[in-house]
Write a structure and sequence with these properties.
By secondary structure, the protein is α+β, with helices and mostly antiparallel strands. Helices cover about 20% and strands about 30% of the residues. It is built from nine helices and 20 strands. Helix 3 packs across helix 4. The longest helix is centred in the middle third of the chain and has 12 residues.
């Protein structure tokens, strides 16, 4: 099912013992669901604490006198303006302003930064960064860590009970609480939560404590997807790709305004042209009529039968209580409430453009 070249998670034995059903994702053999099932895993995360193994993602430390300059070239970012512990959502862009990958970068010290990259793009990201680093006094160090996410409204309480102090962190902040650990208050669910990278032995010890708390449940990749979709968060490879630019994807909030005109990042000129001309399409939320989900790949049409867009992610939203989707439509049709039609196996299903997110974010901001 997964092939001989599929990477195995360091904690695969724990997932097997928990009854996980595995499947291939981004080159890794990942837990898709556990015996509770997607619906319960999803709702438990919204109500209590969901525990996710995200060790397929990659952590890099970028350090040295030229580290900030390297990151400023690679991303539409002002790395020197980041405060210590501040995390920032950003991207690697092509010369044409296409999104190679979306990332979170955290300032750990004066000349030291943590980069968290997506699993499917880890090799591409590392090669891209190393190629750029030839022109800068900077070192790139990939880390071999177990990476876990603790998500949900009771996450801080559960971690405190396990002996991990959280009250010094707010949303989009990260630090190294002890040797070889990285911890941030962030996540991919729209809930308050944390992501911790740590050595395997430490991870097994911490997980034993976390799972002894009845509020904590293992959650698989399927519910992780429905949670992030309800939260309106992009999945690279689906909702954002090298064929999408930040303006079309509705992600310009992540690019400081002064950098749009004066930044030295790759893709700046192309992005400036897109902004001047206006994006031709926009990423939007989509709410299908009825209970039938509309899946990724479905084409979207206007009332006259003209092709005007496509669905990039879709499924059922257990917390929203209705099917949810995201996709791209012509910019003139991107207003919430606009009705379009999705082609689902030859049937035109009415779909309304919907504001994002579908469920309210509940981050703990300072």
């Amino acid at each position: 099912m997964t092939g001989d070249n599929t990477n195995q998670l360091p904690l695969a034995d724990l997932h097997s013992a928990a009854g996980a059903r595995f499947g291939a994702f981004a080159g890794w053999n990942m837990p898709l669901t556990y015996p509770a099932g997607v619906m319960k895993e999803h709702l438990h995360t919204r109500e209590h604490v969901g525990l996710f193994d995200i060790s397929h993602m990659k952590l890099f430390v970028v350090s040295g006198r030229g580290a900030a300059d390297l990151l400023n070239r690679a991303c539409p970012l002002d790395a020197r303006a980041l405060e210590l512990r501040q995390s920032k959502y950003t991207f690697f862009l092509t010369d044409a302003a296409g999104i190679i990958d979306d990332l979170i970068i955290t300032r750990l010290g004066d000349e030291r930064f943590m980069v968290v990259a997506n699993a499917g793009n880890a090799a591409t990201d590392e090669a891209h960064l190393r190629a750029l680093a030839k022109d800068f006094d900077a070192t790139i160090e990939p880390l071999d860590r177990v990476f876990i996410a603790i998500q949900g409204p009771e996450s801080a309480d559960v971690l405190e009970k396990a002996g991990i102090t959280t009250n010094e962190l707010f949303f989009m902040q990260g630090f190294e609480p002890r040797a070889n650990w990285f911890m941030s208050r962030s996540g991919y669910t729209g809930e308050d939560g944390f992501e911790i990278g740590l050595p395997e032995a430490d991870a097994r010890q911490l997980l034993g404590k976390l799972l002894s708390d009845e509020r904590t449940m293992w959650v698989g990749l399927a519910a992780r997807d429905s949670l992030r979709l309800e939260a309106g968060l992009c999945l690279h490879g689906n909702d954002i790709t090298p064929d999408n630019d930040p303006a079309s994807a509705g992600l310009m909030w992540a690019i400081p305004k002064d950098l749009r005109a004066d930044g030295n990042f790759i893709g700046r000129a192309a992005l400036a042209t897109i902004l001047a001309d206006g994006a031709k399409e926009k990423r939007v939320g989509l709410k299908p009529e009825g209970r039938q989900p509309v899946r990724s790949g479905a084409e979207l049409f206007d009332a006259d039968g003209q092709l005007i867009g496509r669905v990039t992610s879709g499924g059922f939203g257990p917390s929203a209580g209705f099917p949810v989707a995201m996709g791209y439509v012509s910019a003139s049709l991107a207003k919430a409430g606009t009705r379009v039609f999705a082609d689902v196996r030859g049937t035109k299903v009415p779909v309304d453009v919907h504001s994002l997110p579908f469920t309210q974010h509940r981050y703990r901001k300072g």
